[in-house]
Write a structure and sequence with these properties.
11 helices; alpha/beta; about 280 residues; 9-stranded mixed sheet; homotrimer; UDP-N-acetylmuramoyl-L-alanine:D-glutamate ligase
Chain lengths: ~280, ~280, ~280
């Protein structure tokens, strides 16, 4: 596979997505129970191959046959957290990208501590909402309300930058505008729709898609992340346009359809990625 | 938030729902694996905030930040049952409402025993189908067939009353007519559609919605429960009316849409709640 | 219930399905987390009754009240594998059919070993994709890529026959053409659509439907399996024909609708089952 040289552009977005489809990466997901169905369906619709495996005696072998790892902190328990750490360390050993979704970070002490333990396992990318990123960065420990965000994404940008620098990773903050940063550069993505927040695990699924996109541009995880955000958000916009009603049930169906059906012209006309700093 | 004075009426139904949306209660759900996706989506669509967390070391803290707790007995295991009891006791300590869904009570001795243990933790509301309520009340231990009801809701009304009196809780029996009782008063709800029984965990999700509704009228759990039943049932009726086909796949999509989109006029014209005793 | 004498025909297909609906078998499913929602919905839509229960202290009792058992090896862990073996042995003791879905067999050593342990528990039917059947038969241990098939179903026919003979069971290999064999006879099914492979756990759900169909023709598990494959595949074809878009989100909705709504004329005109050897 030729190396891709991504630009923060809609053109590049389509190009990367096609490279992902050509590669059909196996994304090993250790995720919360609520998200499993939609996450697997999002990956399949977008042209990737999902695998859910969490057993302590199997996760390292699964990382070995996968292209990337997704670790999501929802519905955690001690044994699952142990498996997540094992898998993350194996991914780093093997030089495979892994992406952390710190669901509900800040909601409880156990949750926050577990997220920090995973952060110490050197993720390639961290994706959360503003409250989660704020909590994870230690910039704020309050204001998190279950797994929904109570802060705007812009409020968490400084925390995201600090996190990115301190942990040498890419940090993405989802919101009305999505921000992606390596600590210095900031790329903004203006795709998506508010109704997505009424579909459970939409954000979790998006993080899995980021893992898939990074496999096709491993040298450019910042732009790969931004491109995944744009594709997912645009699929929601297009889906909503075609849905019979502006409801979360219809949007979920149409989102999956669009992740399979969106064409080059739509992506080139609709992806809104820009360098902000 | 001003106190709501509910009446068994469609007017009151809309008013309570709006109060729920204004409050956006965080409903902590410890539920079966099958139900997690649709339950979270039902809560989100209706204007609430779901959180699934089951770890023994985290459930008490989660109850602390939640408005209500939902405990569902499906796909049980010893560790999960322990977490459910811990969470339920914490809810009682903190004066927060909690709702029990005794899925499959009567199907196996372990199941029945576990349901009884939770019943002893003083739920605010219990919601089940007729067979489950009959089994739970000890009025009958047979006739339960997996998690589907084999008895009509009317058959379980006396058992429901006994249960309500003995355990000082509200008991709701779902069926063609839903009955809600505190042991003396009985309110009936005539919304819903038979096709709902072909959507897995529709009943489980409804119980979670009851938990949300009770948070907005904590002094009137009987009427809050009836109102939740009416809203959910009406959303199914309206959804079916708008669905392209009368199939369970389409109904599930439209149900979620309607929980987000139903307007005041529809609720006022369609909710069918009446005092029966 | 009168005994059914199945033929490899579309007529027979409808007749068996009606017998299944009349029986409304309770199918006890011990399956992976990803599949639970769609599997339960597929069984309900097709006229069966699902029950998910996995606890070591409850599975044997659940087998006792069920008509059939489905064991799926996805998202395995030591405790769940133990429960699966316990349930499978109980099913054999009670003379109830049980069906094995060796998800991801060959992907990791633990996975393959666990699948072989279940195979030793004498399943009535084994259903997998070509790679899984090849791995399970020991005909090949490589080439398995997560839970997706990388081999064509025809490539696994010999392995399927060997497996069927050695383990005295029916083996079904899913693919563009589905093959079902008892080691000697081979029946082919030409229903289904490629887009089904983009719906997570569609295959898992199909295996659960096989378990349901076998309950209504326990003396003819080979044909019952072929008939289940035809009904499921045809529901997907019909669903796709009616879906607003050829996407996996819409197909999933329409598939569930069609499993509820398909009529006799459609099944008789569309089921494509033939004796191949």
């Amino acid at each position: 596979m030729p190396t891709i040289d991504l630009k923060p552009s809609a053109e590049s977005c389509w190009e990367l997505w096609q490279a992902v489809r050509a590669k059909r990466p196996l994304v090993h997901c250790i995720t919360n129970f609520v998200s499993m169905d939609i996450m697997a369906n999002v990956l399949l619709a977008a042209g990737c191959s999902p695998a859910m495996a969490h057993s302590l005696d199997e996760v390292e072998a699964f990382v070995g046959i996968s292209s990337a790892l997704l670790v999501n902190m929802g519905t955690l328990s001690p044994e699952w957290v142990a498996a997540k750490k094992l898998a993350a360390r194996r991914a780093v050993e093997l030089g495979k990208p892994w992406v952390l979704d710190p669901v509900g970070c800040g909601a409880t002490p156990v949750r926050t501590a577990s997220c920090l333990q995973l952060l110490d396992c050197r993720p390639t990318v961290v994706r959360g909402n503003a409250s989660e990123i704020l909590a994870l960065a230690g910039a704020a420990g309050s204001g998190v309300r279950g797994v929904d965000s109570t802060a705007a994404s812009r409020d968490a940008l400084e925390a995201a930058k600090q996190l990115a620098v301190a942990h040498k990773c890419i940090v993405a903050v989802s919101g009305e505008v999505d921000y992606v940063t390596d600590g210095t550069a900031v790329v903004g993505v203006r795709n998506g729709h508010e109704l997505l927040t009424l579909i459970t695990a939409a954000g979790c699924s998006l993080t899995a898609l980021i893992a898939a996109f990074v496999t096709a541009a491993p040298q450019q995880p910042l732009l790969a992340t931004a491109h995944a955000l744009a594709v997912f958000g645009l699929a929601a916009e297009e889906g909503l346009r075609l849905a019979p009603r502006p409801g979360p049930g219809s949007l979920r169906v149409a989102l999956l359809d669009m992740l399979h059906l969106m064409d080059q012209a739509t992506v080139k006309a609709g992806a809104r990625i820009e360098v902000m700093a």
